[in-house]
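Okay, any thoughts on this one?
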Amino acid sequence: MRFVLLPALLAFDVVGAIWVWSTFGQGLWLVGSLLILVLAGINVAVIAKGATAFRWMLPTLVFMLVFTLAPIVYTGFIALTNYNGNHLLTQQQAYSSFERQTHVPDGTPAYAWAAYEAEGGGLALYLIPQLGEEAVVPDDLLGEEPTDGESAQPDPEATPSPTATETEPAEPTPTDPEADEPATGDLSDVFATAGGEVREATAGTDIFGAPDANGFPATIDGYTRLDVVQAVTRISELSATSFGAEPTVYRVISGSRAAAIENVYDIDRDAGTITDRRDGTVYSADPTGYFIAPNGDRLTPAYQTVIGIDNFVQLFGNEKIRGPFLEILLWTLIFAVVVVVLQFALGLLYAVVINSRFVNPVAARVVRAVLLLPYVIPAYLMILVWAALFNQQTGLITAVLDTLFGLDPSWINDGNGARLAMLVVGLWLGFPYFLLINTGALQAVPGELLEAAEVDGAGVFVRFQRVVLPLLLRSIAPLIVLAAAFNFNNFLLAYLLFGGNPPKLGAQVPAGETDLLISFTYKLSFDFGNSDYALAAAVTVLIFLALTPIVVSQLRYYNSWRGED
């Protein structure tokens, strides 16, 4: 069996090594390190003797590493960077983007062209400069032309699309008087291959055969000329091919014309500099993630870089961010505690009443089933229904309050009013859960204790306070804590009910009066104009730190139970 596994493992390692090398080449160090750990674990599981137990655990460990530990580490790393809408690329990816940026040098003429195919299958162009005719290159061939010291990222998927030229001949025709005669002057004819060769050429010399009526060699040694039909048929392939070698390449721009295209920038990755070939300006990489010229001009796209704890400093140091953030943090804590207390109290009240011996058992079952409906229906749908009920113009609740009490529907645009409505909806969604668990917990309270307390003269409320409630809290305390943690991160309610609105005035970030930390984080990442992922990651780290004590307390509570057992 090992003779089969080892070759398969070797092939798997080769593919994995290529993948790791690729990720490191793109600057994705964290992803590459994660892949190395996974590959190492798989190799140990297959090769090591006595690793039978580890083999069975490996899938679980890999999933835990990839879907639990890696996101935590990655989020912490992103919080230490400047990753946002302006800094989406790694530095190496930014270099590659600038390397793809091209332009047509000023004064460059258009070229008439004829296509040839080598015996081995490679394509080549014979180019005749058309003096006095300026090359006009489609935008999709060049990408967006850089302006004012800023370079837009070209679309790497864009390929030239020769519109209205596929019906033209692949070479100038006798009906075009300017094309009949080859251009004369300082510029020579050019022969360029797709393999990178570029040379000056003259028809009728060296490997080039005698010129035809348009000045193109009828034959070239080792090449076969494409006729008009063949050139038109393969115009898409010709348009997508770069002939010659960087920094200057030749591209077909129509059925009869080609152009010389140059790279805009010279890249020195080791020195961290980008030089604009047009004016010689040198842009240097700086710690903020930009390439900056001596006069302060910056190139885009910018790149990701580690900036340390700047995002955390911004959260607490920038007044226009600190104020909304601390207000949202306080509201999140208040909401998590208050809504759970209300849910528990209402659920316990219904559980005690329904389980009372004074209530008909059949009626109790019917009422319990009805009260559990909010818990059975998907919360997503229920929140949208509540949002419609609270609608300022058409909502039923706002209309009833206006009719009965004269309450202006605009109360929902007030921060306190919106928070109160959010607490009501949170109570509605969560009390059936506590009704369910309290009903079960009440069944576990020993009847003998209640009878003994009654014999001792304890009334109903004393028995509930001294006997029922302590036993109840002992059994469901972990569930109360988990419910608080859930409501601390109740994204659905915060985002779907009011979208976090009304907005906080004067805030520099997208903060609302009913936002919880989790919805605030989402807005920073996806609803904010600049998509500040790094700042959102910093908030996520703080949420993680805030919830860690809850998890630790749960583990201690569980361990205390296990010790008693």
Remarks:
- DSSP finds 20 helices and 14 strands in the chain.
